[in-house]
Amino acid sequence: MTIRPLRILTSLALLVPACTGDDQPADSDAQVGADADDADDATPDEDVPEVDPGAQVGGLDDEFRDAAEEFGVPMPILQAVSYAETQWQMIAGEAEFDGQEPAYGLMALRGEHLGLGAGLIDASLDDVKNDRRTNIRAAAAVLRSYADDLEFDRDDLGAWAPAIASMSDIAVEDALVSYIHHDVYGAIQGGIAVLDLAGAPVAQLKPEAGVVPDFTAPSDPTLAPGPDYAGSIWRASPNYSSRPAGTAGKVKMVIIHTCEGNYSGCWGWLVNSQAGVSAHYVVKEDGSEISQLVRESNKAWHIGATYDCDLNAKKECGLEGYNCNNFTVGIEHAGFASQKTWNSNLINQSAKLTCDITKGHGVVRDKYHIVAHAQLQPYNRTDPGANWPWTTYLNKVNEYCGAQPPPSEPPPAPSGQIIVDSNASNNDPAKAKITVSANWTSTASTPGFYGSGYWFANTAPVSDGAEFSFYLPAAASKTIDAWWTAGTNRSSAAPFVMFDSAGVKIGTVNANQQTNGGKWVQLGTFNFKAGWNKVVLSRWAAEGFVVIADAIRVR
């Protein structure tokens, strides 16, 4: 696949039950972990033909353009809000959290905004919910109504941030800031392109790296890792309680949920004390980030059902009648039960997380212990939906927990080398660490990344670098290589600054990240001291571009 300076989506980057790239056919092992006489109880993986993105999003650019012209809302704003909400999929949202209204359509309109949009364009609620063009028009009308209450230059993309925030329904400040900077404006800065199966573009948001939202800057100085999973970010929720003592409080299952919404909105709702709900983890739409909200040793409030073993093939009947939260770990996934496709990296990273949970608690890795929310609460929940690729998912969980790493796992560094990846869970914490501020955005959008994704940030005259730290037991001369995804919106002089363990700068290399993507590029050889040395990718470069923090290699 050609690497471009924007997010490229094709069928290879998405999962449907019978179209998963290098996965086995959907009916090859529908009984993972099951007995033959339990065949009727298997979670179905229907034999669905490959989804052509051209059929799903064909004509979308014209619909965005028409709505933009009709309502005076810039086309990139409509495109970015829609992508942040639904990944450009038509959805019919469902209830996942009490107190949060279902979302509908390509723009994920919900609650008062659904009715407001319908009224502003004189359309029926059914049309706004179900017709793509009408849904986009309604959202554009709502955004214009908020813009009418504000005074700003409507040609300035960054100035639209407060209006977008008003339509987001996100109450928690940190989550709202993340949504604006990372989800919406991250899409504008990085760009998006959807290709059909023949490789032709069918929808595109061109990258504009220099656009900065006129909104509160992210405030978190660093993103601390979760207490149980190194690849997660700790965003503590107050909505939890203690597990009961004894068998009823021992973790026996992992429950797979969908948020019925966007990533930032999801974790923002679950850390809100007024919501009264939570989950242990939330996985971002493209798998590039995972938030941990509740310690696994505590009970998160993610399922509103008591256990009925008849719903689970008569497994674990000793837990009959107990609250399911007592003995489960809940994983929410940004997205919707009604969506047609799932990003393959979300599936990979969620499977890796589930493997880690099952190892830590001795959970059996089969379809009776890694279960759908709907399986245990079928009377009012359907998530994660009919198109969640269960066979693929369980296969990957078992692959991650096996002796051999799955294809998406980065290979181990050869003896004598250290690789510091952008995903902390891929690093040996005794000798490799990654540190970034909240101004950096995690993604897996542009192909060619090392491991499971990368961080990017706008260039600016600020001291806010991504720090790749590595430990040396003794002073040594080491060669440093770097890995990035290439694109024309990247800096042509991204500053990699080398520091020894005493904090002394020992070299700077300006790398052209517009070329040489998807491979190791040598930066130079430097004399490091014993202890924790580091390579810092600085943002201090010519403005209007982004810098990519993916991985470094020490050899």
Automatic annotation (TrEMBL):
Where does the record place the N-acetylmuramoyl-L-alanine amidase domain?
Answer: 237-385
EC numbers on record: 3.5.1.28
Q: What is this protein called?
A: N-acetylmuramoyl-L-alanine amidase
So which domain of life are we looking at? Bacteria
Family matches, as PANTHER family? N-ACETYLMURAMOYL-L-ALANINE AMIDASE AMID (PTHR30417)
What catalytic activity does the UniProt entry give for this protein?
A: Hydrolyzes the link between N-acetylmuramoyl residues and L-amino acid residues in certain cell-wall glycopeptides
> According to the UniProt entry, which residue ranges have a biased composition of type Pro residues?
404-414
Q: Which CDD domains match?
A: CBM6-CBM35-CBM36_like_2, PGRP
Entry-linked SMART domains: Ami_2 (SM00644)
Q: Where is this region: Disordered?
A: 23-57, 402-426
Q: Which organism is it from?
A: Nannocystis punicea
Taxonomically, what lineage is the organism?
A: Bacteria, Pseudomonadati, Myxococcota, Polyangia, Nannocystales
Top EC class of this enzyme: hydrolase
Give any Pfam family that matches.
Answer: Golvesin_C
